[in-house]
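User: Some background: our group keeps a shared notebook of sequences we're curious about, and every so often someone picks one and asks for a predicted structure to add to the entry. Today it's my turn. The entry only has the sequence so far, pasted here. Could you supply the structure so I can complete it?
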Amino acid sequence: MILTSALILWKGLVVVTGSESPVVVVLSGSMEPGFRKGDVLFLHMNKDPVRTGDIVVFNVEGRDIPIVHRVIKVHERHDTVDSDILTKGDNNPGDDRVLYAHGQLWLQRQHIIGRAVGYLPYAGWLTIVMTEKPVLKYLLIGALGLLVVASKE
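Assistant: Of course. Here's the predicted structure to add to the notebook entry:
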């Protein structure tokens, strides 16, 4: 019941926010001091164009984990409604072209998962710890299972 409720809540958030991943955890210090490792970001995606200064979460080919960085340049193309987007971590010395796929110089809108619209400081540390130490994840799942079995009447 708990898992089903969580799945329904997640899918509801996907529909409401327009983002395939409405909640993400910051995994590095590249956006400090604005966002720190372990902060939870709430994302939204709509039809509005991406603007310079927006904090976006994006995927690039060849990387499994999305990246949270700020848009530093938008190059609008006149022949289409699409635009080229360049990002950079606030705490990084250079732009993100070294993070993009081989030969890729710009992001397009299809790479953007969502824009940050809010955050919860340090709330993602449990996720980070469970990812870095998988044994803790299995202990937590086992404890929850025992709790469910023990609570049945």
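Suggested note for the entry: The domain at 2-122 is CATH 2.10.109.10 (Umud Fragment, subunit A). The chain has two domains: 2-122, 124-153.
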